[in-house]
Design goal:
Largest sheet: 5 strands, mixed
Mean pLDDT: 86
Number of strands: 8
Distance between the termini: 52 Å
Radius of gyration: 21 Å
Order of helices and strands: HEEHHHHEHHEEEHEE
Strand content: 15-25%
Structural class: alpha/beta
Shape: globular
Length: 269
């Protein structure tokens, strides 16, 4: 960036496209996430940690979001959770501005801009300059992710927690059960324990037999789920369906369900 915006309380961030739709939140149970959210609301006294918006009204609590502070691998598909914060929906839209700009109408974009200006006590020109600098910086930074290619037959995304969050042990346990938590050797008390864990997981994967294959749409993305684990997701239904049929060919005993989701209605093909 060419200009110093270090005094800004509200900043702009841009999640790499390849990591869109992949978070720890969507990979743990809703019940556990609700417990975490209640703890975060309590910890931060129902107050946005950026702009200071605060409420105790039950209906207005939905305006406060639990924000996942993440780091992303550029050689391996690894999302590392560094911590959780409580911010309002307006501040949150600027933390994911790539998505915000793609889904908001002009009224929404102007509201987001006005919120940024108010929180940072800056001008429209400051916002435009800062956004331009962020775009240039992120465009260069995200080039390193473009070389990463997802194998359609394997969901490569792994997760790790390196910050302190409520119910961390429960979260790690749920991710471990799905075989999507990234462990390192220093997480274990001895090399022997680490080796036993790795060998146990390798045996578990070899012994896995797919009994159920489900293709369904979630938030605009088609997902393939096998025995409760997400194997692949795609914006194109035909790609997800083709992958599901390949899996069934490898597992002829497996039951295949393809769901067309429209609003709240599910139609079975």
């Amino acid at each position: 960036m060419t200009t110093d915006f270090s005094s800004f309380k509200l900043t702009i961030d841009w999640k790499p496209i390849i990591y869109h739709g992949h978070t720890i939140r969507i990979n743990i149970s809703q019940a556990l996430w609700r417990e975490i959210r209640l703890e975060i609301l309590k910890q931060y006294n129902n107050t946005c940690q950026i702009c200071g918006y605060s409420t105790n009204e039950k209906e207005e609590l939905r305006n406060l979001h639990v924000h996942e502070i993440e780091e992303y691998g550029n050689k391996a598909f690894l999302i590392t959770l560094k911590g959780l914060s409580l911010i309002c929906k307006d501040c949150h839209s600027l933390q994911h501005i790539g998505r915000s700009l793609s889904v908001m109408d002009e009224v929404g974009k102007e509201k987001m801009k006005q919120h940024f200006m108010k929180v940072n006590d800056c001008t429209a020109n400051d916002f435009d300059k800062y956004l331009s600098d962020v775009k240039q910086f992120k465009a260069k930074e995200h080039l390193k992710y473009q070389k990463m290619v997802i194998d359609p037959d394997y969901d490569p995304f792994m997760y790790r927690i390196e910050g302190e969050i409520p119910y961390k042990d429960k979260v790690v346990n749920e991710l471990t059960t799905k075989d999507i938590y990234k462990y390192y050797q220093y997480d274990f008390d001895s090399n022997q324990e680490y080796t036993k864990f790795i060998n146990r997981n390798m045996f578990k994967k070899k012994a896995e037999v797919i009994k159920m294959i489900k293709v369904y749409q979630h938030k605009g993305t088609w997902k393939v789920e096998c025995n409760g684990k997400i194997k692949m997701d795609s914006m194109w239904k035909k790609k997800a369906v083709a992958h599901a049929h390949r899996l069934q060919g490898e597992n002829p005993e497996a039951i295949l369900e393809i769901h067309n989701v429209s609003k709240d209605i599910t139609i079975y093909e």
